[in-house]
Amino acid sequence: MMYHEIMIRYGELSLKGKNRNVFIRKLRDNIRRIMKDLPTVKVKSEHDRMYLFAEEGQEIEEALTRLQDVFGIQSFSPAVRCKANLDTIKETAERILSGMETEGKTFKVEVRRADKTFPLKTIELQQELGGHLLPIFPGLVVKMKHPEIRLLVDIREDGAYLSTETIQGAGGLPAGSNGHALLMLSGGIDSPVAGYLMMKRGLKLDVIHFHSPPFTSEQSKQKVVELAERLSTFGTKIRMHTIHFTEIQQAIQGAVPSALTMTTTRRLMMKIADRVREEIGAKAIVTGESLGQVASQTLDSLSAINEVTSTPVLRPLIAMDKLDIIGVAEKIGTYEISIRPFEDCCTIFTPANPATKPKTDKVIYYESNADFGPLIEQAVAGREITELPFKKEEDPFSDLL
Q1: Residue 210 marked ligand-binding
Q2: N or C terminus of the chain with fewer C-beta within 10 Å?
Q3: Percent of the chain scored above 70 by pLDDT?
Q4: Where does ATP bind (predicted)?
């Protein structure tokens, strides 16, 4: 059956109190943004549901795919709307089941009666629909728990919504409803997952990436652009700030003993990220660090790195195992991008024996061998800014196909 409407159920935001409407508006805006290139799609929000309408069936199919990635949605269903009277509901339900394989299938009618003025009570409507449909579709077998076909009937003031499919949403809070942060995005597996998890908690993200040509290639930079663009599909636009880091890394190699170069590299990255964060008005920095995973992520290393900023540093992966992180990366579609064999600026200058317990005072002492201040200012001022997702160009010949 061709559907033209989708009924969207709110996730965690349904538990919000007086500021609930703020979250609902943000979710509506995020959905409208990701559907912007679908010209007939319209979105209408209500207190306990949201509805998406489209004139074109193909646009509904595309919308069903995109909604699965939008934070703040518990579940959604392709639905048929009809007049909220018994005869019309029966006819619509019959039409829906006529397009399905019903022989030998288990079946149940579920009714939600949001409009209390509807003349039949919930159980009465369930009995009426069951009594009407079972003789028409004798292959159906009634089953109350875990039926193969669930006919969902939602009675509302503007009509009755009927559906037979419930698709799980991404859950969480609408991206952008809980503040603004800056994600330190490398080309690896971890940082995109960290960004995804913080967006799920309602953060809007900018991302910062450190690029060191000619030691890092354009392919390594493009990989990060694709990761950032993938993150932008979860509800909000993303700005990517690309920092040219070559001169700073070369200065580090000349000023700091080999074992401490990784610690200093991370400290200066954090300083630069904090400067960019301040300029864009973000409130926190997000990283993909996991405790003990590599030398720069031991407790001593993290302490030395954190010393350069008083800004909150959010580390959502801090207690996660690598296999768990990989599992999330595969689920969200970043893993295959991340494993492309193009090195980032951290891996190309990795010392043979990096310090795992760096002393902060010693790191500060060696960093005084070079004046990094002007280099940091230059890197921040000269950064490239890319808006994601990229605007899709229309095919001039599409009308001829």
Answers
A1: yes
A2: C
A3: 96
A4: 184-185, 209-210, 266, 288, 297
> Which residues are within 8 A (CB) of 231 and not within 5 positions of it... i.e. 6 or more apart?
192, 195, 196, 199, 205, 207, 238, 334
Q: Name 81's bridge partners.
A: 161
209 is in an annotated binding site: yes
Phi-psi region of 22 (alpha: psi -120 to 50; beta: other; left: phi over 0): alpha
Determine the Cα–Cα distance for residues 248 and 12; give it in Å rounded to an integer: 44
What amino acid occupies position 177?
A: S
Is 288 among the annotated ligand-binding positions? yes
Q: Please say whether the beta carbons of 106 and 147 come within 8 A.
A: yes
3-state secondary structure of 8: strand
372 in a labelled binding site: no
User: What was the pLDDT predicted at 316?
Assistant: 98
CA dist., res. 265 & res. 285, Å (int):
16
Does 184 show up as a binding residue in the annotation?
Answer: yes
Tens of pLDDT along 204-249? 999 999 999 988 889 999 999 999 999 998 878 999 999 999 999 9
Report whether 41 contacts 52 (CB < 8 A): yes
Record the pTM: 0.86
CB 155 within 8 A of CB 114: yes
Which of helix, strand or coil describes residue 32? helix
Is the separation of the CB atoms in 253 and 293 below 8 Å?
no
Of 61, 28, 57, the residue nearest 43 (C-alpha): 28
Annotated binding residue 185: yes
**Residue 217 to residue 211: CA distance in whole angstroms:** 9
270 pLDDT more than 90: yes
CA distance 220 to 210: 11
| 383 annotated as belonging to a binding site for a ligand | no
Over 80: is that where the pLDDT of 156 sits?
yes
| Position 13 pLDDT exceeds 70 | yes
- Sheet containing 204-211: which strands, arranged edge to edge? 313-314, 284-286, 180-184, 204-211, 238-244, 384-388
Average pLDDT, the chain: 92
Is the pLDDT confidence value at 70 over 70?
Answer: yes
